[in-house]
Write a structure and sequence with these properties.
The protein is an alpha/beta fold. The chain has one domain: TIM Barrel. It contains 13 helices and eight strands. It has a six-stranded parallel β-sheet. Strands 1-2 form a two-stranded antiparallel ribbon. A hairpin with a 2-residue loop joins strand 1 and strand 2.
Length: about 350
């Protein structure tokens, strides 16, 4: 864990609804000065869809009419050999995410973005191994995560993707944050996601192992929070607007997570039209009430107060640009409100006094 202090700073997931990378960066930097993030632009191209964005060079992958699939009729061994050789040699160039898949990241890498002087961290993101592995399918619509060889490939592929991205971000900031987005974890334990706990943890840890900066995982629904809290994630991110109660059911696990220096990213700003009916005060009240439920169950308030970030509840890519920009500004406003309530004022050093002899 680094010396990073969360201080209820605003953060966000990756997607925004803009079709132009420059416009997206202007919107982000207009609201987020301390922890900007590079924008994913799914409306610019299907290849910037969260799953297609990070499937580039996965063994045998094909993009066909909005579907990501692996062609098992071809020999996958050459592709698998290339992946495993890059993995064994720690060749991060394999993890390169190209301009076609991430125009916003390319604009940053080309130094076409003036990052703010107030920046304390630079954030990136990528699809998590569970969600990506359940999205990529074979010709029979069977997710690759149920294929032993390809499931292992998912973890190694994303480890290189994550490590390459972190390296690129570290060229612009000493402190980096990388969040794995795992929406499919909301279905963990159901017939739809019938995976053993050990496989889920193992895949997440495979990706985390390639990272040196802050790392975390986001789920925008109810999930088995003890699984995510038990990993080496520095940050656990949730939709706190609709699902904070689900986290409060696991106070012991939350307390242990905080004790080891973990940070909770509270997605208290609704990522949709509901945001138009909320204010910074109403959302700060709602978040404090959510924290209160954990405190009632024995989690120390001080531990929660010193380990919080605030964010929209989910990605913004499906909204209108105007609504997305409103949500970014509202998130920054909620951050300032929470800082006023929960971040103690620094104590000024006492003036030295003494007597002469």
């Amino acid at each position: 864990m680094s010396a990073f202090q969360p201080n209820w700073l605003p953060i966000a997931l990756g997607s925004v609804p803009h079709a132009d990378a420059a416009a997206a960066w202007r919107a982000i930097l207009g609201a987020f000065q301390e922890i900007p993030f590079w924008p994913a632009l799914p409306r610019r191209s299907y290849l910037e869809n969260m799953y297609a964005q990070f499937s580039e060079r996965f063994p045998g992958v094909r993009f066909d009419k909005g579907r990501i699939h692996v062609d098992r009729q071809r020999d996958l061994n050459p592709d698998l050999e290339r992946l495993y050789l890059a993995y064994l040699e720690d060749d991060l160039s394999y993890g390169h995410t190209g301009r076609d898949h991430a125009a916003g990241l390319a604009r940053l890498r080309d130094r076409e973005v003036a990052l703010p002087e107030k920046m304390v961290a630079l954030k990136g993101h990528l699809a998590g191994p569970i969600s990506l592995g359940l999205t990529i399918v074979d010709r029979n619509q069977r997710p690759v995560l149920y294929d032993e060889v390809l499931a292992d490939a998912v973890g190694k592929h994303l480890r290189l993707k994550a490590a390459w991205q972190e390296r690129e971000l570290s060229r612009f900031a000493r402190q980096t944050i990388l969040l794995l987005e795992e929406p499919y974890m909301a279905s963990f334990g159901s017939a739809f996601v019938s995976l053993p706990r050990e496989q889920v943890v193992g895949l997440l840890e495979e990706v985390f192992a390639g990272l040196k900066g802050l790392k975390g995982v986001h789920c925008c629904g109810n999930t088995d929070w003890p699984i995510l809290l038990s990993t080496s994630a520095d940050i656990v991110s949730l939709d706190a607007y609709d699902y904070a109660e689900s986290l409060a059911r696991h106070p012991e696990e939350v307390a242990r997570f905080l004790e080891r220096g973990g940070i909770i990213d509270w997605g208290i700003v609704p990522a949709g039209p509901a945001a138009e009916g909320e204010t910074a005060v109403s959302l700060a009240d709602r978040l404090e009430a959510a924290m209160g439920r954990l405190v009632d169950e024995g989690v120390p308030h001080e531990a929660l107060a010193r380990a919080g970030l605030v964010s929209p509840s989910c990605g913004l890519g499906a909204l209108t640009p105007a609504l997305a920009e409103h949500i970014l500004r509202l998130t920054a406003d909620v951050s300032r409100e929470l800082q006023a309530r929960l971040v103690p004022e620094p104590v000024a050093p006492a003036e030295e006094t003494g007597t002469s002899t």
